[in-house]
Amino acid sequence: MNLPVSLIGVPTDIGAGARGASMGPEALRVAGLQAVLESHGLQVIDRGNLGGPSNPWQPPVDGYRHLPEVVAWNTALHDAVHTELARGRLPIVLGGDHCLGMGSISAVARHCRETGKQLRVLWLDAHADFNTAELTPSGNIHGMPVACLCGHGPAELTGIGGHTPAITPDVVRQIGIRSVDPGEKRFVHEVGLEVFDMRYIDEMGMRHTMEQALMGMDENTHLHVSFDVDFLDPEIAPGVGTTVPGGPTYREAQLCMEMIADTGRLASLDVMELNPALDVRNRTAELAVDLIESLFGKSTLMRKK
To answer: Which pLDDT does position 305 carry in this prediction?
Structure first.
């Protein structure tokens, strides 16, 4: 499935606890993302960056930091992603912090409802991002997008796209998780979110993990990948605001991406939380571009398929 690709930059760190993810889109461009995709025969249009409110860097109000600004950015992203999908294009969202998953995934879910597609979301992340204001003292909304998408959060966020909840937990597969707050862990178990944490990957291997996560998809499945760069081990990907040791190695991450590519179902992508201010010579952005290339068919495979 070689859909034409649209790049959408979303330069904000509005939902994060550290500044700098707003520079992520440019770092991915500097690392050559468009040229790399075009080298695989893909037709790529860079739509530039969305606009939105600046980061006021305020403490939480009623448990949420920067709620009006988060709503504004995610609403703009929802509209942009939905427009690209309606045009038959594959949107790649260049974040920005991971609160933006609400805008992109609510748009994908809306598109699937309109076209009768089955949705599968792979959430590649060190964190479950299933917090609520009651569970997290920080109020940083980048720790809440999956909960909000599943209907747990303020109406302004759960209703983006006009349908609450935007998704149900059964469409999500979380991979690489290794940092979850105690209350968040209980909540994840309560709603039945399917989580392949690092212990599972250590015990079962990345191949088995991905086979499980991709099981049950068919030709009517829209596969959305939400790739938080802190999914990767910080030894290879230092340029993120919330590093957690013990993530997937380069080879494990490559295998993950290659197995997604093998399905031929990838139809939308987020690349989130890249923070060039914390990076070393744009190394993390270059690694992210390398892995995105694998999602679109670069393969290390020598044997005949």
So the answer is: 56
170 belongs to an annotated ligand binding site? no
Binned at pLDDT 50, 70 and 90, residue 30 comes out as very high
| pLDDT surpassing 80 at residue 35 | yes
Active site residue 156: no
271-281 pLDDT, tens digit per residue, is 999 999 999 99
On the question of a cis peptide bond just before residue 165, with omega within 30 degrees of 0, the verdict is yes
Task: Say how far apart CA 89 and CA 42 lie, in whole Å.
Answer: 11
Compute the distance between CA of residue 129 and CA of residue 24 in angstroms, rounded to an integer. Answer: 19
The whole-angstrom separation of Cα 238 and Cα 230 is 8
Matching CATH number, 5-295, of 3.40.50.2300, 3.30.70.1050, 3.40.190.170, 3.40.800.10: 3.40.800.10
Verify whether residue 163 is a known catalytic residue: no
Q: How many whole angstroms separate alpha carbon 147 and alpha carbon 169?
A: 9
DSSP letters spanning 198-244: HHHHHHHHHHHHHHHHHTT--TTEEEEEEEEGGGS-TTT---BSS--
pLDDT exceeds 60 at position 265 = yes
Domain boundaries, the chain: 5-295
Q: What is the mean pLDDT of the chain?
A: 97
Confirm whether 127 is a catalytic residue. yes
Among residues 66, 82, 111, 127, the one annotated as catalytic is: 127
- Please check if 279 is assigned to a binding site: no
- Report pLDDT for 299: 75
The answer to the question of whether 129 is labelled as a binding residue is: yes
Please write the tens of the pLDDT for every residue from 96-124: 999 999 999 999 999 999 999 999 999 99
Q: Where in 69-220 does DSSP place strands (E)?
A: 90-95, 118-124, 172-177, 194-197
Contact in structure between 100 and 10 (CB atoms under 8 Å): yes
Residue 268: enclosing H or E segment and its boundaries?
A: strand 266-272
